[in-house]
Backbone:
């Protein structure tokens, strides 16, 4: 790709670059080089996108469900045919390692496949005989225009969580990608155009918080979805709540992993490397706090440090390295600051990821290497706050109960994992871990697309989660009908009204 990429909005089927708007640079995090610009759209432009979605809604809602499913199937096939191109876009501007970028697109294809089951998930309910000749019926109906906000770290996944289900259930959509990783949506929207999706059904607007804030007072917007930080989720919840709009808001995370004395050690180390250092630690289900019981602590630490030192770092497009950069210099500075905080608080830094050895010719990207702290206590900031980088905090714990208490006391509750071969430990952890997603002998406890994805406590603002039936419920409303069955030949059901001539007219003739 050239260095002059102009990221564009897509409104009502038309690519637009607002020349009069401010722009922000788009970088390749692997090299630190600017590769393009992203427009900072105004609220007026955002409202134009909502207007286009609102105009498209009546005909899209009236489109028969099988026809809407045809488009979802077309999205599924288009993504499969263009998987490599989509993954390359993610590896370029988000700098996710190319193998992980391919994995992200593959997971989205599975999510779109799940969306093909909408006809089953949208089925309503009927109760017959609630009174003489009276039945009750509940149907799931779309609401109108939904808007969504994506973070930088999973540009494809969040598209998959929001848009296929929203439009499959009959709504239209306005989407704001992250300005740091917009390339995937540029390619994805072109695919939607290519498959013939009607204009205005999905619109994309780039910008900052002003774009989102314009949705709160727009009467055409039915609801807003977000994957992002907890403070941002709370701000959107407040804006939506003032105006009676639905919201589905996934917030921050600080995930625990518990290694018991019978943990399968090879599997444990392999999964920690994948979970803690994959995507350079920039994902909501990355392991962060690792609780280890004394029986295996020494062996665990020796093997973890040895394996972590072997992680190779470099350009995300290089298939021979293990880990790419973080998203920006600002992210590097934030992670470095947390490393200093950990040292100041008394933790022991046994592996320092600052100034890592970067493979390849260009070493000017935004790199942070694997970082490991020991002697971490639960009250330290590095144990409480989301760092969003390849930083592991090791906490020595006495037993499963003490770890469950640590998880319970934490204000966030996204995910937690346990490594054990003991059924009692497994069931106890599943039942008592105060989080929304649990993994057993897996380092990333991401549910299958047919199951709900989302945390609890501060990790979820609101009620609905993404994926599966939860997502269908969010993008629809229950409409209840009370139906009296009338036999037109039944005289008892005939209603008569006097007319001006004094002759009775029968409305049930």
Residues:
């Amino acid at each position: 790709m050239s260095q002059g990429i102009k990221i564009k909005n897509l409104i009502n089927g038309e690519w637009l670059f607002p020349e009069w708007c401010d722009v922000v640079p788009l970088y390749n995090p692997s090299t630190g080089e600017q590769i393009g610009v992203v427009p900072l759209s105004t609220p007026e432009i955002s409202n134009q996108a909502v207007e286009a979605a609102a105009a498209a809604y009546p005909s899209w809602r009236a489109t028969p469900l099988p026809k809407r499913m045809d488009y979802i199937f077309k999205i599924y096939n288009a993504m499969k045919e263009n998987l490599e191109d989509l993954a390359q876009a993610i590896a370029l501007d988000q700098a996710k390692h190319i193998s992980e970028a391919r994995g992200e697109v593959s997971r989205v294809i599975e999510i779109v496949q799940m969306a093909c089951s909408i006809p089953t998930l949208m089925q309503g309910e009927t109760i017959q005989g609630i009174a003489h000749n009276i039945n009750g019926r509940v149907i799931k109906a779309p609401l109108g225009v939904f808007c969504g906000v994506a973070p930088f770290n999973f540009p494809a996944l969040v598209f998959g969580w929001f848009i296929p289900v929203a439009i499959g259930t009959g709504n239209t959509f306005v989407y704001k990608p992250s300005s740091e990783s917009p390339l995937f949506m540029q390619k994805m929207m072109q695919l939607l155009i290519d498959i013939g999706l009607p204009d205005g059904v999905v619109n994309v607007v780039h910008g900052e918080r002003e774009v989102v804030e314009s949705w709160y007072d727009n009467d055409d917007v039915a609801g807003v979805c977000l994957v992002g930080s907890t403070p941002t989720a709370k701000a959107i919840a407040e804006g939506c709540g003032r105006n009676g709009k639905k919201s589905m808001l996934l917030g921050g995370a600080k995930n625990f992993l518990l290694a018991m004395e019978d943990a399968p050690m090879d599997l444990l180390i392999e999964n920690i490397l994948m979970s803690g250092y994959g995507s350079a630690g920039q994902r909501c289900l990355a392991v962060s706090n690792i609780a280890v019981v004394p029986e295996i602590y020494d062996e665990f630490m020796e093997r973890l440090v040895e394996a972590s030192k072997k992680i190779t770092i470099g350009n995300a497009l290089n298939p021979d390295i293990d880990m790419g950069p973080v998203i920006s210099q600002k992210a590097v500075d934030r992670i470095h600051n947390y490393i200093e905080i950990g040292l100041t608080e008394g933790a022991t830094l046994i592996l320092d990821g600052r100034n890592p050895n970067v493979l390849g010719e260009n070493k000017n990207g935004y790199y942070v290497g694997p970082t490991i702290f020991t002697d971490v206590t639960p009250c330290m900031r590095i144990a409480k706050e989301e760092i969003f980088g390849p930083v592991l905090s090791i906490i020595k714990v006495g037993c499963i109960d003490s770890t469950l208490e640590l998880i319970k006391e934490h204000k966030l509750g996204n995910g937690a994992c346990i490594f054990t071969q003991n059924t009692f430990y497994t069931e106890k952890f599943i039942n008592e871990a105060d989080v929304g997603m649990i993994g057993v002998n897996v380092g990333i406890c991401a549910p299958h697309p047919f199951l709900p994805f989302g945390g609890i406590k501060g990790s979820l603002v609101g009620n609905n989660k993404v994926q599966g039936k939860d997502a269908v419920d969010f993008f629809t409303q229950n409409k209840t009908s009370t139906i009296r069955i009338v036999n037109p030949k039944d005289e008892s059901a005939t209603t008569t009204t006097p007319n001006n001539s004094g002759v009775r007219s029968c409305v049930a003739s």
The longest helix spans residues 43-62. The chain has two domains: 43-251+459-481, 255-448. The longest strand covers residues 134-141. The domain at 255-448 is CATH 3.40.309.10 (Aldehyde Dehydrogenase; Chain A, domain 2).
